[in-house]
Amino acid sequence: MAAAFALFFKLIPLYVTVGLGWIAGRYLEASGRHIAGIMLYIVTPSVVFSGVMAAPLSPEVILLPFLVFGISSVLGIVQLKLARKVLTDGSANIIPLCVGSGNTGYFGVPVALLLFGEEGLGLYIVCMLGTTLFENSVGFYLAARGRYSIQDALWRVLKLPSVYAFLAAVALNLSGVGIPEIFVPLFDNLRGAYSILGMMIIGMSITSFRGMAGNVRFTALAFFGKFVVWPLVAILFWWIDSTILGVYEPAVHQAMFLISITPIAANTVVIATLLDTTPKQAAGTVMLTTLFGLAFIPVMISLAF
Question: What is the H or E stretch that residue 28 is in?
Fold first, then answer.
């Protein structure tokens, strides 16, 4: 527990930033929606680009997003079948988004930088892209059911600037091209903005969504899938690869484990609102997992690393 408290202490600046976001939303009427567009189309692609450029790429590393995407998809489909047997209020289709993705960006990137440093952050971002792809393709499609076609879901993926930032960074990295020195401070500042604004958005969402009361079975399924099933799968992969396959280094195992223990993605609320599929239930659950994650992540990392 001493290690957990030590990590919790190191994460205090992130928690303070969440508090500042809450103050901005509560007293300054700031809205995370205004920041979200800047984050999605400018800041996030920049962080993905610089992170992949710094990562030691190999064919195995390049396959990581697709591995994470596959795990997220399987977890989402399996949990959806379970949710349909338990939930009857139409909220079951949001469960795949809750358990398959996670707040791997706004929450995970600052923690990954703190834990792994620059090189480890690059590996984490490569893995993180897998959950982003799931969230905007299979996750969206499962949530939408018959309202939107597969073509619509694929079109959403094609419009993701982070995908193109990833592909460009892979091509340049493998070609031996680095980021010019004059632009290094710019990308460092954008990464700092990503952490600060992303954590503040979490605080603003806590202000915006007060109705946590909802279907307890939905919340229980979401917590079970996100904080029990996903971490167990990550640990199983860690054990199989380290003892039998030997494909990836420990830094990759740690990155995937961190992805598995992040809270539910804030974008889950955006998609639920867009589809008009129990958005209040989704918002309350995201808020609960975010608050829970503040204590859960330091404990789990201290036990696993």
Answer: none
CA distances (Å), origin 32, targets 25, 169, 200, 253: 8, 28, 8, 32
Answer yes or no: is pLDDT of 35 > 90. Answer: no
Return the pLDDT at 213: 47
According to the model, what pLDDT value does residue 271 have? 76
Range of the domain at 40: 2-304
Quote the CA–CA distance of 254 and 108 in Å, as a whole number. Answer: 12
- Report the mean per-residue pLDDT for the chain: 83
* Residue pointed to by tokens 């993926």: 157
Place of tokens 């893995």: 127
CA–CA distances in Å: residue 295 to residues 41, 228, 290, 299, 301: 31, 15, 9, 7, 11
**pLDDT score at 298:** 86
Backbone conformation region of residue 149, classed left if phi is above 0, alpha if psi is from -120 to 50, else beta: beta
Give the DSSP letter of residue 215: -
Q: Is 124 in contact with 258 (CB distance < 8 Å)? A: yes
CATH of the domain at 211: 1.20.1530
pLDDT in tens, 163-222: 888 889 889 988 988 889 999 899 989 888 887 887 787 777 665 555 554 678 899 999
For residue 68, what pLDDT is reported?
94
Domain count, the chain: 1
Under a CB-based contact definition with an 8 Å cutoff, are residues 283 and 91 in contact? no
**CA dist list (Å): 261 to 18, 98, 140, 253, 290:** 18, 12, 21, 13, 11
Structure tokens at 283: 């918002």
Number of C-beta neighbours around residue 159 at 10 A: 11
Residue 75 token pair: 């977890």
pTM score over 0.70:
yes
